[in-house]
Amino acid sequence: MTTTTDVDWVYMQTAIGLAERGLGQTWPNPSVGCVIVAENNVVGRGWTQPGGRPHAETEALRRAGAAARGATAYVTLEPCAHQGETPPCAQALIDSGVSRVVVALEDPDPRVNGGGVQMLRDAGINVDIGLGQIQAQVVTSGFLKRVTKSRPHVTLKLATTLDGRIATVSGDSQWVTNDAARRSGHMLRANHDAILVGARTAAADNPTLTCRLPGMSNRSPVRIVVDGRMRLPLTHALVTGAAKTPTWLFTYAETPQNSDRRRAYINANVELFDILPNVVGTPDLEPVLTGLANKGITRLLVEGGGIIAAAFLELGLIDEVFWYRAAKIVGGDGLPAIAGMGIERLRDAKCLNRLYVEGVGDDVVERYSVTG
Asked: In 3D, which of 65, 34, 70, 64 has the Cα closest to residue 49?
């Protein structure tokens, strides 16, 4: 084992930046970055490719070729040690002849969980662990939660006026924020595996929930609708477009399995998932997240409306919040971004930790982690 240096930190930061490129595209696999450095020159770079393969190490080694021999590899997550659809990345690093591997974060997946590091060390390769761990945890948080908590990382995205309204008293809501803020919001969609709305929002707004940035339509997330009573119209954009962009609908299991409505959704390429109502008769969201994790979803973006946002917050299922605030005020009779949560004492309020705030035109976006 060696001691990491400032130069190591620079290369690991590069690897973390590469890992960010794959967010929203690699599920069920994590998005990993890898940099191969020989004699202070980057000879290979790679990140997990769409669909989860090839892995970052394979990509970086392919680009490095023979220059990898004797080099140092910087990897944001422990190289895999198990034989899947492709050989283990730890073995690929061994075969390449690298002399040192710097790993930001150990992999909690039981199929790896230290096995990759052990393979490397058994082959005589120096391994350093922990450089850039906090930053790598942020990038890999969805995969980590899916493995350790059987649910994806959940981001709540809100777009409101300064007084927290998403629509006027008449229901007019287009557009609350400006063009720059909406473009930023579409980048959020591109960086998540799936996007979720409630049945009321879907019916009222007829959203497409796609990424509409130029050249990025192929990065649209899976569309999720929580619709216990199957109220989503068959003519809805989410249904008619399901053959092109996947749409998954979570509905009550009590709906007859052979009903005409079920068959119509299925014929339109909408995938159905059965859930049960909770004690107050609304969809139970925890099984929704478990179902998504079982399908391989690691990063979920919740876009509303107010009832679904409040339900996720009440259950403690939101990990971070992106709040876009427009330089507008519509008053207290407008539609709130978050429905009532029955909180009577301030000490019971949901507490957030602001990570940053930046301007997007005349609007602002604030990013928070949820702490309580």
From this structure: 34
Give the active site residue among 20, 39, 57, 358: 57
- Residues 167-212 have pLDDT tens digits of 888 877 778 898 999 999 999 999 999 999 988 888 877 888 999 8
Say whether 358 is catalytic: no
**Phi–psi pair at 370, nearest 5 degrees:** -90, 125
The candidate with the shortest Cα–Cα distance to 30, out of 291, 221, 298, 300, is: 298
Cβ atoms of 166 and 335 within 8 Å: the answer is yes
E-assigned strands of the chain?
Answer: 33-38, 41-47, 72-75, 100-103, 126-129, 153-160, 165-167, 194-198, 222-226, 247-252, 270-275, 299-304, 320-325, 335-336, 352-360, 363-370
The one-letter amino acid code at 350 reads: K
Burial letters 313-333, b for 16+ CB under 10 A, else e: bbeebbbbbbbbbbebebeee
Q: Answer whether 340's CB lies under 8 Å from 310's CB.
A: yes
pTM of the model: 0.93
Q: How many residues does the chain have?
A: 372
Could you tell me if 25 and 53 are in contact, meaning their C-beta atoms sit under 8 angstroms apart? Answer: no
Angle at 321 between CA 223 and CA 251, to 5 degrees: 35
